[in-house]
Amino acid sequence: MGRTVEVVTAFCRQAESLGASEIVIVATSAVREAANRQRFLERVRRATGRDVRVVAGEEEARLSFLGVLSGIEEINGELILIDIGGGSTEFTLARNREIVTALSVPLGVVPLAERYMNQGPVDWARYAEMDREARARLAREVLPSFRASRPGRMVGIAGTITALAALDQALAVYDPDKVQGYMLRRHRVERLLARLGALSLAARADLPGLDPGRADLIIPGIAVCLAAMDAFGFDSLLVSEFALREGILVDYLAGAGRAPAAG
Prior knowledge:
Blueprint: H1 2-17, E1 26-27, H2 29-32, H3 37-48, E2 53-54, H4 57-71, E3 78-84, E4 89-95, E5 98-105, H5 109-116, H6 124-141, E6 153-157, H7 159-168, H8 176-179, E7 183-185, H9 186-197, H10 201-205, H11 218-232, E8 236-239, H12 244-254
Parallel strand pairs: 1-2, 3-6, 6-8
Antiparallel strand pairs: 3-4, 4-5, 7-8
Helix pairs in contact: 1-3, 4-12, 5-11, 6-11, 7-11, 9-11
């Protein structure tokens, strides 16, 4: 909590120094699921003088979809959007640029990493357990809400997906322009799993193009990604760099500059 408050405070100060008249602070699953969330929100308020908007899972999915629409103009027909996060994963079914169903499940890469990962190369028996859990959770908690849908495309957002797109292109330095609109193939994700899984945590953290802070999360993220692709029958997904952050901005501007309500 202390580190997060420090970072949020620094961001606010930087925004103020650049002349920002309105600052919007948004929190997602880590805060909305925390038993001591109110204590944290009060600490942010004392440090910054500003309230925090805590968004529900379905609202997070809606905002992420707004962000995707702002970056990919040719989205039409029926699609499924997947957002693999630290504490939850959101699934959004859209038809002709309108949301039909939005669902958030508490299947995030952080608790998966805590339960199944270690400092060395991947223990493939443990990975198999993680894979079974992810697939069982999707079958039980996600697919029943999407049975009548026939999406023609899957779009992926957030850190796991964008990191895989960068690694698949062997980018020495992460380049958002090369990640945006990249087509990530299932067999390439499996190849990355084998490559990354053979490395220790420290070796993964040294890989060019991969944020060291994601080295322990990328394997659980791959497990959720592959499980989701298989659950919906896709062998590829379209990567969007535009996501929640851009969606928050679009939503804010659409509200004629009204600051969002505090959580």
